Amino acid sequence: MDEKKQPPLLPKRSTHTKPNRAGIDIPVRAGTPWTSIEDARLLQAWREGQTVAQIAKEHQRTTAGIEARLERHGKLTDTAAGIRK
What is the pTM (predicted TM-score) of this model? Predict the structure, then answer.
């Protein structure tokens, strides 16, 4: 009897995401502490004009996490945080 290989029931997860408690994929570094090196890279990317989405992808964090960190460093204000670059 010739058995056909069945496709997996669930799609393969990206190595850049992990499931949260609700089972929704989030970036792997979401919620982890920031290092001084990562902060420096964040600020450099911002000065170079990268968008929040680009920085989030590079740092494997959420856009909300990037915005919160930029706000902490005085690069975004509450009103500017609502406007995603």
Answer: 0.68
